[in-house]
Each structure stands twice: as structure tokens, then as C-alpha cells.
């Protein structure tokens, strides 16, 4: 078995990390606009970057600067989307995954009528993609919900957001459905428990005393319901649409064969998969329900919720994969940074400049595990490495990035040869952007270099890295030429 002839090669970006223009075109403030860059932060403290309180929000609202709030400026994709898409087309992209900023359509999330300037902007992007025959894969919620909904309702802890999200989703389906076949509802929906504010707008000091953890899991439930109802609405509005779930694939190994380590790894993987189970099987897993009881988490179900989940499952499962991690019952083991969480360092793997461990075989393991468990098509919608790039005489020689992708794509192809049904692969990210975890620009992922530093200084000029031409050859050969 080989990659399908219509395999969706491409890249993935999010509105909050690339668009900029945070106060143009009628856009409202999102939760991403108050995410502050903190220089000189220790690698192991990166996960703490997501901790937000009411004082930090007030300070951010009062400060209109983009210097330390870099997601406000992004890489100015808002004004440069035509030339950037032309570069993606030059690489031969078959697909581009991107998100629609809720606050460009409904600035506060509660308007009765959508913002026409926001609709026009995304229509222009879709028409540009259509010109190059690039398939759009649209994410409705990618860490950029309206800030006002966090302040007024403590985010998704309130069921009111289901109604508001459906209003936003319906407009997207009606306005963009003629151009978009593939839809994702929530980016990395499992991440609500790791960074509740960025994913769900929940602020701990806005929760009632002792209710913060309960609010997190209630928010997750509300997002599951919203995702299911959005899938139902999409199928009513958009012909021949495909609805996907999206999770962070946090593949976890036991650090040793000590039974306690094996059990910890099993618990971690089951907790990760539960979020896919709910959207694919249409019900809460039994062990997940027992966990909620044990932790005294009381999720409020409405009478129709079980039926909503059961009747509106997804067509495919998409996921991000950057790394694997190990867990140990020995608390003295050396820790290393990872994708919004730490793990015990794996001595058999190399690490990126940011401490994320490089594990191409882990991608194959993840594909086999997910396909065997769910038997529905899969899509890899984020995979890549953050690295420090150096410009030498206008060139960026990033063989380390080529090596990373080559080995991951080799393992991906092995999984397909073993029978995995894979729809596509979109790298994160095809162009340098603001990092979601550290809010840095110097943590570069792209095949295209953007001249901007962590302070926002630079011309924003785009430069092709060596990996640009390498990926172009990969796509042209449908993955056969990885040399």
C-alpha cells in the first residue's frame, strides 16, 4: 500500500500566530491577544507560560503595545496572505490548514450580526487558495476565542458558549461552505486540562472557590457538545463535507519496564485517547467516567447530551504529533520540556533546541495505535520542530529540519504500508510564526523564514530555507523522493 494519489500534502497555520492586524477590520480581542512574551524564561518553565490570572488580563487590555504581546502582530499574514499563499503554491501544496478567528466574525462573540469585513477577508483567502487548487482544511477554534466571553462567562465553563459557538459555526458554514470540504471543530480539544485559559477561556480566580478543576471538565463537556452540534449543522448546510476531531497525540512510554512505570504510561495514554473516544464512539469511556467520580468532578449533562454525542460523531481523526515522552515512578529522574508538558528524558532520543525529544518511530506507533483503535481515516495536521535558524548571506541552511521531516515521513509511510488509511499531512508550520507555547519568534518551524525577532523588530521579508526546495521535491514525488 502506498500514499493515495490525492494525498493532501501541505502545511498548517493558525490565525492567532500568523495574521497580526489584531485591531484592524473590526476584529475584537481574543485570548491570544493578551498572551505575553517573557524573555529569558527557563526551558522547563515554558508550560507555565499558559498560566493567566485576572490581573494579567487587565494589564494586557490597558497596554496596546505589540512588543510583549506578539500574537497581536503575528507575521502580518493579514496583509501578506496573497504572497504567502503563492509561496505555498510554489512548494506544490495540495492543502492548507488554517483557522478562522472567531473575533473577526463576531468581535465579542455575542453580536447578533457577523462582521462583514471578517467574512470578506476569509472569502478572499479561500478564493486565493482556489486559484492555486489548494484544498482548505479549516479549524473553527484554534486558541483564539473572544476575550469578552472569558471575562463575562469564565469561558467554556458556561453552557452559554455552546449557543454562541454554534452561531459562529453556522455563519462559517453558510459563508465558506462552497469552498471548504474539510472542517475541524476544536484544535487539540484535550488541551483544556493543560492550559484552560488559552483553550477554553477559564481563569482560575474567576471560578468559584474549589470549582476550578470542575469548571475545566465542564468546559470540556461543553466543547464536546458544541463540536457534535456543529458537525450536525455542517452536514445540513455543506454538501459532501467531512468533519474531523483533532487531538494532541501525547504518545507516552514507560521509562523502564518496571510495572509501576508501565502503568503510568498506560494511564497517560488512555487519558489522552479518551478525548478521541468521545468524538468517534459518541460516548464517554467507562474508565474516564470512573476517573471523574474518583476526582469528585460533577459534570452537568442535559437530558439530550448523550444522544447528541452518539448521533453526531466525526468522519476522520486528525492530530498533532511533535514528540513522545516517558514517565517514571522515580521522581528523581531528569525531566525535559515538551509540548505544553514535561516528561522524563528518554536517553535513546535526541532533543531540539527547546528540549523536545525527536522520535520519528513514535509517529508510526501513534498512527498504528489510532487506526487500530478507531478504524476511521486519519490526518496528521501538525508535525515539525522548533529550531534556531541562522541567516548566512541571505541563505538558511537547515539540514536539521530536513532530517527531522525526512525521518518522520519515512515512518509515516511505513504505517501506511502496514494498512493505515491516511488522508494527508500538513506540517507545522510552513512559515515561521509566533510560537504558541513560548510566544517567541526565534523558535522557528517554517520552510519559509520571516525576518522578525522576538521583540518584533525586522522587515518581515520572506526567505526560502533549504528545506523549502526539499519539501517541494517530496510533494512533487508524492513522498517517494525523501533524499
UniProtKB/TrEMBL annotation:
This is 6-phospho-beta-glucosidase. GO terms for cellular component: cytosol. It comes from the Bacteria. Keywords: Glycosidase, Hydrolase. InterPro entries: GH (IPR017853), GH_1_N_CS (IPR033132), Glyco_hydro_1 (IPR001360). Belongs to the glycosyl hydrolase 1 family. The keyword Hydrolase applies. It holds the Pfam family Glyco_hydro_1. The keyword Lipoprotein does not apply. GO terms for biological process: carbohydrate catabolic process. PROSITE patterns: GLYCOSYL_HYDROL_F1_2 (PS00653). GO terms for molecular function: beta-glucosidase activity.
Amino acid at each position: 500500500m502506498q500514499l493515495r494519489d490525492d494525498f493532501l500534502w501541505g502545511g498548517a497555520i493558525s490565525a492567532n500566530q500568523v495574521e497580526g492586524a489584531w485591531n484592524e477590520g473590526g476584529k475584537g480581542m481574543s485570548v491570544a491577544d493578551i498572551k505575553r512574551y517573557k524573555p529569558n524564561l527557563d526551558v522547563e518553565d515554558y508550560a507555565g507560560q499558559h498560566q493567566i490570572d485576572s490581573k494579567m488580563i487587565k494589564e494586557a487590555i490597558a497596554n496596546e503595545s505589540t512588543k510583549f504581546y506578539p500574537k497581536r502582530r503575528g507575521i502580518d499574514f493579514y496583509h501578506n496572505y496573497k504572497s504567502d499563499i503563492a509561496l505555498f503554491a510554489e512548494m506544490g501544496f495540495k492543502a492548507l490548514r488554517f483557522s478562522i478567528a472567531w473575533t473577526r466574525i463576531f468581535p465579542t462573540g455575542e453580536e447578533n450580526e457577523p462582521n462583514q469585513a471578517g467574512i470578506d477577508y476569509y472569502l478572499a483567502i479561500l478564493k486565493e487558495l482556489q486559484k492555486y487548487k489548494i484544498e482548505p482544511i479549516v479549524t473553527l477554534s484554534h486558541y483564539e476565542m473572544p476575550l469578552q466571553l472569558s471575562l463575562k462567562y469564565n469561558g467554556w465553563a458556561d453552557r452559554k458558549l455552546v449557543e454562541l459557538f454554534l452561531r459562529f459555526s453556522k455563519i462559517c458554514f453558510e459563508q465558506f461552505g462552497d469552498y471548504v470540504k474539510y472542517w475541524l471543530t476544536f484544535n487539540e480539544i484535550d488541551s483544556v486540562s493543560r492550559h484552560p485559559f488559552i483553550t477554553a477561556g477559564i481563569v482560575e480566580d474567576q471560578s468559584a472557590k474549589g470549582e476550578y478543576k470542575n469548571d475545566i471538565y465542564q468546559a470540556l463537556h461543553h466543547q464536546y457538545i458544541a463540536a457534535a452540534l456543529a458537525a450536525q449543522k455542517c452536514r445540513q448546510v455543506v454538501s459532501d463535507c467531512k468533519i474531523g476531531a483533532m487531538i494532541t497525540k501525547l504518545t507516552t512510554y514507560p521509562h523502564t519496564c518496571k510495572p509501576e512505570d508501565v502503568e503510568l504510561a498506560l494511564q497517560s495514554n488512555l487519558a489522552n485517547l479518551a478525548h478521541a473516544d468521545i468524538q468517534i464512539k459518541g460516548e464517554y469511556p467507562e474508565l474516564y467516567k470512573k476517573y471523574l467520580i474518583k476526582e469528585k468532578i460533577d459534570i452537568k449533562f442535559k437530558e439530550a447530551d448523550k444522544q447528541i454525542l452518539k448521533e453526531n460523531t466525526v468522519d476522520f481523526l486528525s492530530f498533532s504529533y511533535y514528540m513522545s515522552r516517558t514517565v517514571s515512578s522515580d521522581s528523581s529522574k531528569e525531566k525535559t520540556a515538551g509540548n505544553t508538558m514535561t516528561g522524563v528524558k528518554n536517553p535513546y532520543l535526541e532533543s531540539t533546541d527547546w528540549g523536545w525529544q525527536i522520535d520519528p518511530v513514535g509517529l508510526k506507533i501513534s498512527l498504528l495505535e489510532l487506526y487500530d483503535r478507531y478504524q476511521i481515516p486519519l490526518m496528521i495536521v501538525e508535525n515539525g520542530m522548533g529550531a534556531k535558524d541562522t541567516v548566512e548571506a541571505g541563505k538558511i541552511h537547515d539540514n536539521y529540519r530536513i532530517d527531522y521531516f525526512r525521518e518522520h515521513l519515512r515512518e509515516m509511510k511505513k504505517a501506511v504500508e502496514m494498512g493505515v488509511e491516511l488522508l494527508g499531512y500538513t506540517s507545522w508550520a510552513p512559515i515561521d510564526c509566533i510560537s504558541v507555547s513560548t510566544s517567541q519568534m526565534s523558535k522557528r518551524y517554517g520552510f519559509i523564514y520571516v525576518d522578525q525577532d522576538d521583540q518584533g523588530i525586522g522587515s518581515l521579508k520572506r526567505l526560502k530555507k533549504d528545506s523549502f526546495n526539499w519539501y517541494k521535491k517530496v510533494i512533487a514525488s508524492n513522498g517517494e523522493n525523501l533524499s
